[in-house]
Amino acid sequence: MINLRTHLFLCFTLQQLQYVLMEAKEGTVDVDSFRGKTTLVGRTSDGGCCLLINRTTIKHNGEDIYPWVDNVNKTACAFFDWIVSVEVTDTAPRPRISVSEEQKEVGNINVSCAVLHSPPSLSFSDHRVVVPESHIDKGQVFASVTFVARTKDHEKPSVLANSSCSFHAGRVICRCQAWAHPLATVLWKVDGGHLFSSSGPVWALKQKHAVTGIWAAQDTHKNMSVTCLVSNTHGHDEHLLSVVVKARPINVSISQLPTSPLEGETVTLSCLEVSYPPVISYRWYSVFGDRAFLLKGNSDSLSLSVTRDVGQVRCCAVNDMGETSSATTTVNVEYAPTILSLSFCSINKSGLRCECVVDSHPVATIIWTQWIIQAHHVYNITDPLNWRITRSVLIAPRGAAGGHVLCNSTNEHGSASIKLPFIVAETSAQRSLYYGGIGSVLPLLLCLVLLLFWRFYPTKRDDDGHVALGEVDL
């Protein structure tokens, strides 16, 4: 790219003075090596523009161009006495980079870059900054950026959080991972002792500047303290590793989303656990009493369309060390009250007793209405086998009977009511008289049967004194 100071004016006297016209607003280029390869870039009305030469070759090297032309008049032009030589090389020049002398983490660092290019171009690889470009004479480009320093900028070692140790049956295996460039060495310290080198291999992922060191030992204990130290020419970093005991999964539990679904909605159950080694499979069971039926396997979640009788479930998490089941969990589902057919009202000698049995979740509020006698008592009982079923009991004197009683049940999802008619119950005296009468009649019936038997079935004896049954004509 060649800088032009003023606008070029098409002037045919150029050829008469033995100068070659390279680019003009009108006309053509007369030199074969530049024909069709030049473009005037910029706005000449602003007092400056650029001459762009495309597809340069080594043949263009050393060509002299007179870029400045002053318009004298319509028939004459004068050249500014300055020659620009085209320089074409096989390789691009290396950029010159300078960094501020003081370089501290979280401090400001200034980086400058200058390069001679044709055409000039410059970029920084760090995406955190916007690179301002400033052009300098003779094709040199200079740019400067300022940013907050990080450890990664110099690739000082930084131990990663996923570094840890695993323990099982007295054997411990530790892995220490870190970012480092150039590659770092990994040292170990156990229970506050001296540093020693890694007993296992050190792997390096050069494309990511990552390094991994391994240390293993027998006859150890799970409460040991292990520290890894990673260092290179830029510094070091150390980290106290957590020792994870290999065991079957623990703390297995079930979570539900949404937590309060209505009937017909879909819920997702998730099997939660703490496990090292990681869980490799899951199983889900539907539980009825002491029996369990497999629902789904090899997934940590289960989706269900819930109803009020969806029942209970449990999950099982499996890893290389064994398996653990969660506690049996009742799937939570909410619904409006339903009054069950077990509800009734009865009257006996001791008084009136009414029971209203309601299935609901959340538990419904039960109110008895159309009751004008104040001398009564109401209490609620929760079913021990199903906490969603509530039995409300109304007790009142016998004289309070008024034909029927109305049971109303309500929760946040709806309501239900039922009219309970009275059923007259027998008293204990009535039951005694009834069963006593039956006891008196039974002996009389038995005597009558025996009399009829002897009357219609006569007997005779044979010569040996045996009794023989005779035939009777009926």
Automatic annotation (TrEMBL):
InterPro entries with a match to the protein in the record: Ig-like_dom (IPR007110), Ig-like_dom_sf (IPR036179), Ig-like_fold (IPR013783)
Keyword Hydrolase: no
Keyword Acyltransferase listed: no
Residue span, Ig-like domain: 249-332
Gene3D superfamilies cross-referenced by the UniProt entry: Immunoglobulins
Keywords: Membrane, Signal, Transmembrane, Transmembrane helix
Domain of life: Eukaryota
Chain segments annotated as transmembrane: 433-454
Range of residues in the leader sequence: 1-22
Protein name: Ig-like domain-containing protein
